[in-house]
Design a protein that fits this description.
The structure is a homodimer.
Chain A: H1 2-22, E1 31-39, E2 42-45, H2 47-55, E3 63-73, E4 80-89, E5 97-107, E6 113-122
Parallel strand pairs in A: 1-6
Antiparallel strand pairs in A: 1-2, 3-4, 4-5, 5-6
């Protein structure tokens, strides 16, 4: 299970940032009505508000470069905790912004993994 | 529940780093036989090995300075996800080390909150 969690978790991270950087509206497919996002301290509840918030970020284009991905199986059967560190490249920023983000993926009734918890922070140096 | 999770989560963080910086052996009281720690990519399972690893870190004295604490209730009833950013001050290091850490606190059969999942990373600039 730990190895499976790691494979699934790393595939999720790749998929998530690929969507974020190239097809941001499609991120809504990964959240549920009771999903939670804390973005730089701001708490947002539910797929609709999370999706709106991610659309409204003050940059249209960006690129996430992942440095580390750590995963652990969670106490909920089939669920996975993921911890990411990396940098965010914006077209108008000379310096890259370091970030850390955690995801808690939980299986839905249909058996798909969805983001139940998402916490994002920029790491100010 | 969200507000309660936030109060409990922040109290835990203060307690955890107070023990880490002043009474490191007592951290073992916060973990369980099935707790997981991923420390800079190294996976450690169970309170005994986690406690040994934390004792063997290559510094005797340190001070954690917390910058941000974000909390969310988790899918397991009564459990809390915590995401911390901060810096680690070591006596022999001129520069502080930035870190991020996440905890998943889950209630035991006795009703105490214990660390089920713990992932720690230094943020290299």
């Amino acid at each position: 299970m730990e190895e499976e969690a790691d494979i699934v978790g790393k595939a999720f991270v790749e998929h998530y940032y690929q969507l974020f950087d190239n097809e941001r509206p499609s991120l809504s497919t990964l959240y549920q009505p009771d999903s939670m996002l804390t973005f730089e301290g701001q708490q947002i509840l539910g797929v609709d508000d999370i999706s709106s918030r991610l659309q409204q970020l003050p940059f249209e284009r960006c690129r996430h470069v992942v440095s580390t991905v750590d995963t652990q199986p969670s106490a909920v059967p089939g669920s996975i905790l993921i911890f990411v560190s990396g940098s965010l490249e914006l077209p108008d920023e000379e310096h890259h912004l370091r970030f850390s983000q955690m995801f808690h993926l939980v299986p839905t009734a249909q058996g798909n993994l969805c983001v139940q918890n998402d916490i994002f922070r920029l790491n100010y140096g």
